[in-house]
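Course assignment 3, question 2. Fill in each field.
Student: A.L.
Task: Predict the tertiary structure for the chain below.
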Amino acid sequence: MTDTYARTASTWRNWAGNVTARPVRVESPASVDELAEVVRRASEDGLTVKPVGTGHSFTAAAATDGVLVRPDLLTGIRAVDREAMTVTVEAGTPLKRLNTALAREGLSLTNMGDIMEQTVAGATSTGTHGTGRDSASISAQIRALELVTADSTVLRCSADEHPDVFAAARIGLGALGVVTAVTLAVEPVFLLTAREEPMAFDRVTSDFDQLVAENEHFEFYWFPHTGNCNTKRNNRSAGPAAPPGRVSGWIEDELLSNGIFQVACAVGRAVPAAIPSMARISSRALSARTYTDIPYKVFTSPRRVRFVEMEYAVPREAAVDALRELKAMIERSPLRVSFPVEVRTAPADDMTLSTASGRDSAYIAVHLYRGTPYQAYFTAVERIMTGYDGRPHWGKIHTRDSGYLAGAYPRFGEFTAVRDRLDPDRLFANDYLRRLLGE
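Answer field:
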């Protein structure tokens, strides 16, 4: 059992500790055939089935009181096709293992999120994304999928084979079946130069469109109770590689961003009045730096401080207005927010339930230290984001239901139609999906 799982008797708990489940049984199939048999037996027993990755979702997407499927044995690369420039990988493979394996092959994903603890299927099924002017989420890099459906058959889909299923299943929420393999587009490994730099909130927001347009990957963090941000610009580089120094990298990524930040969050939870002062100090602690390395070492970083999170995608043109409204709300409220607000972007894509489906998007993510009451803050943020036609990240805390989501997603009906066909008896349902998709 890995450290992302926690069980007391038969209780499963997610990474943040805010979701628990007590399945009737836990299965770890070692092959697609074994998984199909697990699905068949669950159906005969009248039990629902939910696959679970590493528990990094903050929602109850994987929770079940039926059969919990752990993909620990469904890992590894099945095939590398250098002519098509794709890699087919077992669904339970953690992204960190995929990234290191690809690097050994001289290959890389085009874009990725900022952590790599999730499984391939868990990350893609919930729409995990990074930031990109032209390159979209991990799910948008999928070229084919294999899944076991409710009748225990193995279905393969792509743009040419079952294209309606493919449009839905790349971000399938676990509602269409259990994903067993994913074929991803890859490219020859390249170098990225990261430029991290403090910047004032007013400057970032006034120059936001320019910063997005001029950089392949732009993101920033705003520290509540301050006017300070930390920006990150990642662009392709001819090299040479110049990774962070061992000592300076440890100071930035481990000591400041994890060790000292962990202490600050714990103090802030105990003494909320101290948070604004600590925010002013911590927002100035990270200095400017530039380094060049292969993609996964630039895109991702360790996240050892546990938290809960809400994230909404808004139309890119609404990002600055939404962020300024968020800042004003915090400043006039009694809220004390210890975590930075993260802002990223993505181009429009063609997946039915992608948060960037049909529109260029900006993502605004808010976090609170684990164990801190979050409802007041997240409720206020959600009220702002839904005012800008926001779409919630499927793996992060939100309160939206099918009534709202059907209006937010023009292709919502396409997804539910595929679900009705593939899982008419709702073998893969749970309370979370019933809220999102209806009965």
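Instructor remarks: The two ends are 34 Å apart (CA to CA). The CA atoms of residues 100 and 381 lie 37 Å apart.
Grade: pending
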